[in-house]
Amino acid sequence: MKARQWILVKHFEGEPKDEDLVLQEIDLPDQLNEGEVLLEGLYWTVDPYMRPYSKTYNPPITMFGEQLAKVIKTRNGEYPLGTVVLSMSGWRSHFISNGNDLKPISFDLGSTPLSYCLGTLGMPGATAYFGLMNLLEPKKGDKLILNGAAGAVGSVVGQLAKIHGCEVIAFVGDDSKLDWCKNELGFDHVFNYKKVDFSEVIQKVAPDGCELFFDNVGGNWYHTIINKHLKKYGKAALCGSIENYNDKEVKLYPSTNNSILAKELRIQGIIVNTFAKDWPKAFTEMNHFIREGKLKVKETTYEGFENMRSAFYGLFKGENTGKAIIKA
Ligand SMILES: NC(=O)C1=CN([C@@H]2O[C@H](COP(=O)(O)OP(=O)(O)OC[C@H]3O[C@@H](n4cnc5c(N)ncnc54)[C@H](OP(=O)(O)O)[C@@H]3O)[C@@H](O)[C@H]2O)C=CC1
Ligand SMILES: CCCCCC(=O)/C=C/[C@@H]1[C@@H](C/C=C\CCCC(=O)O)[C@@H](O)C[C@H]1O
């Protein structure tokens, strides 16, 4: 049978470009060996980490990433026809596996949509949960600064912070995202950072400073907020620096170190995989919140495997509200 796959043909330089990723058609064997299964992709994810992480590979490679796939042919008793699994099998429409790289869904999804397993109930949701709960340890009344607030991670961070009684000061780059975060997600103060000076508005709504900062964007945000807006003993979770993923040069901002020292801040990075054994517990809890209507989920869905590349580009242009998902 014919399968399609996206090949990273060379390293990205600056913004990802069309010539970096090309769609290829290949033939898969008609017969499976004993123990093998043939899978068909149902949903794929594009995530910002793919841009910087691609530097660790030697192209040409099949672009890496997770997908939700269904068994459509099997010679493996553990994976009957129709089984749905998660797999880090890359940007492939179909693939053959011996089962070792397949993961069943690790919690009771119930009637919650399957695609959420790549978003709120998947890697980005786990990042939000553990970054907030384990690194920032929110307390009632804490003021939390959050950027990338309408993204896959940020939208969950803000909602969990509200559930735990925080005052959320959120930043997005588009007015329809602002409307969603303010009126549907209930964040306390939401600003379009393209229209205001983020530091000025934080100063206005929190003149005495803030206890917590969840940083999805990095760059100038990180330095300004640590220097000017975190209170003494404040805490920052460094989750991502999407502002810098397409940069060709690394910038250094030495003055930030003095603020960290003088205010005795606790600044910690997160790699969500560190918490892997606890993901199912977090997903079960968040799935309850979803069913109770306390945790809202939005997806920006791109139809068709052939649109993976444009979905990926969209991440760096703020195209998605909530999780960017590609549907077969
Ligand atoms: N540490 C870890 O283990 C993990 C880290 N991450 C990181 O978390 C961050 C968010 O990921 P995720 O929510 O999945 O991504 P999303 O693409 O869903 O959301 C990110 C949002 O960031 C905003 N953004 C993009 N570029 C800029 C910029 N230059 N300045 C300000 N905002 C920008 C965009 O929205 P807008 O329109 O508002 O600008 C975009 O939608 C990323 O940095 C990612 O790398 C994600 C998963 C795991
Ligand atoms: C490479 C920059 C990562 C930026 C933050 C981010 O989005 C992380 C996402 C992780 C991703 C980690 C990828 C590389 C980190 C390498 C650090 C290490 O462990 O040595 C991947 O694991 C999926 C997301 O959890």
Automatic annotation (TrEMBL):
One short Pfam name that applies is ADH_N_2
Q: Report which reactions are catalysed by this protein.
A: 13,14-dihydro-15-oxo-prostaglandin E1 + NADP(+) = 15-oxoprostaglandin E1 + NADPH + H(+); 13,14-dihydro-15-oxo-prostaglandin F1alpha + NADP(+) = 15-oxoprostaglandin F1alpha + NADPH + H(+); 13,14-dihydro-15-oxo-PGF2alpha + NADP(+) = 15-oxoprostaglandin F2alpha + NADPH + H(+)
* EC code: 1.3.1.48
Please provide the record's keywords in A-Z order.
Oxidoreductase
Domain Oxidoreductase N-terminal span(s) in chain numbering? 4-105
SUPFAM superfamilies assigned to the protein according to its UniProt record, in alphabetical order: GroES-like (SSF50129), NAD(P)-binding Rossmann-fold domains (SSF51735)
Q: Which domain of life is it from?
A: Eukaryota
Q: Where would I find the Alcohol dehydrogenase-like C-terminal domain in this sequence? A: 152-285
Q: Which GO terms describe its biological process?
A: prostaglandin metabolic process
An example of a GO molecular function for this protein is: 15-oxoprostaglandin 13-reductase [NAD(P)+] activity
Q: Could you say which protein family the record assigns here?
A: Belongs to the NADP-dependent oxidoreductase L4BD family.
Q: What is this protein called?
A: 15-oxoprostaglandin 13-reductase
What is the scientific name of the source organism? Brachionus calyciflorus
Q: Upper taxonomic classification of the species?
A: Eukaryota, Metazoa, Spiralia, Gnathifera, Rotifera
